[in-house]
Amino acid sequence: MPLPQVRPGRRYAVRVATGHPVTGHPVTGSGARDVVGVLVAADTSTWTLLPEDRAPETVAVADVRAAREVPPRVVRPSSSVDDVQRLAARGWPGLEQHRLGGWLLRAGAGYTGRANSALVAGDPGLPVEDAVARVEAFYAERGTRARFQVAYPMTGPDDPAGAVDALLAARGYEVVTPTFTYVADLRSLEPAPLDGLTASWSEQPDEEWLAPESPLHGRHPRAVDVITACPARYLTLRSHGDFVARARLVVTEDWCGITELVVDEGARGRGTGRRAMGELTRAGRAAGARFGYLQVLQTNAAATGLYDALGWRRHHRYHYRGQPS
User: Which GO terms describe its molecular function (predicted)?
Assistant: First the structure.
């Protein structure tokens, strides 16, 4: 069967004869294995694919038995911690991204941990000590200290990044901002009506939307660049013309991510957050999303209580490890 014309940037499933995955030597035996990833380089003799969870792999075209283009990896609320972490990272990419095997190194001028940390997921393709050193060098080149985002299941002893976290702890890295990641099947939710509030949506955040300071980061000169680093929609809620809440909604495949939800201090305790979540749920559904995710500090009792009551489920938790000064 002739091989298809492949294009870098597309995702492929490639069946490779075992024995010589990299060189062009004659194939021995009849076994085969599959490599699935984004094609990052191709010539007449080799293809290089980048799987989601490990380092790039180069295969000899002579060893390829079949290849087909495949859609992005399917993620569901029951998917692994790493899969949901990677999905959420697509909705808040920062200003710069580099892969280190399965890890994702992100830089965003210092605004937010998500945009300025190494997402520890999968195999970095190096011994852990060497991978940590590479991350530290990456952030040192950008004039900042390293930060790692390390995720855990909600229950049970299984820890997908235990060796990394233990090494960082031994090196004096401190835990910063422990966070829950929530997920939901939007089809099962009953979104609250606006009940007198008015909702407006825009493709870019305006001055009113940007006016509330980030609870964690305050005002930042590059905040707008980070917030708008990928396509999103921006919600503003008003009561009798006065601002009461804002949020950002990003759609990735059949998921929507809710970020930057801020309720004005004078509107808290009045169901404003519940109504904002109702509007965000409706908008996510209308955009074709079946599932949703959001991230919230574990110490934010008001927010976690709201999300629990609305039917969102705690999928996993994560924290950052910050390099000591």
Answer: acyltransferase activity, transferring groups other than amino-acyl groups
pLDDT, tens digit (0-9, with 9 covering 90-100), for 14-59: 999 976 544 444 444 458 899 999 999 999 999 999 999 999 999 9
Give the separation between CA 241 and CA 197, rounded to whole angstroms: 9
The SS3 of residue 319 is: strand
pLDDT digits (tens, 9 = 90+) for 205-262: 999 999 987 665 567 889 999 999 999 999 999 999 999 999 999 999 999 999 999 9
Task: Return the residue matching tokens 């000591």.
Answer: 324
The pair of three-digit structure tokens given for residue 322, joined into one six-digit string:
């910050």
Cα separation, 254 vs 258, whole angstroms: 14
Pairing of strands 96-100, 64-69: unpaired
* Dihedral sign of CA atoms 184, 190, 192, 198 in order: positive
Other Cβ atoms less than 10 A from the Cβ of 68: the count is 11
Distance separating alpha carbons of residues 169 and 188, to the nearest angstrom: 40
Written as six digits, the tokens of 171 are 């090196």
CB-based contact 296:307 (threshold 8 Å): yes
Contact of 51 with 37, CB cutoff 8 Å:
yes
What is the C-alpha separation between 5 and 69, in angstroms, rounded? 10
Can you read off the two tokens belonging to residue 15? 């069946």
Q: Are 292 and 281 in contact (CB under 8 A)?
A: yes
CA distances from 238 to 74, 109, 207, 296 (A): 37, 31, 14, 23
What is the C-alpha to C-alpha distance for residues 248 and 81, in angstroms, rounded to an integer?
23
The stretches of the chain forming alpha helices (DSSP H) are 81-90, 128-141, 162-170, 207-210, 223-227, 272-286, 301-310
Map residue 234 onto helix, strand or coil. Answer: strand
Give dist(CA 184, CA 67) in Å, integer. 34
A 10 A CB-CB count for 80 gives 16
Domain map of the chain by residue range?
A: 11-69, 81-178, 186-312
Q: Smallest Cα–Cα separation from 125: which of 60, 64, 50? A: 50
User: What is the sign of the dihedral through the CA atoms of 212, 218, 223 and 228?
Assistant: negative
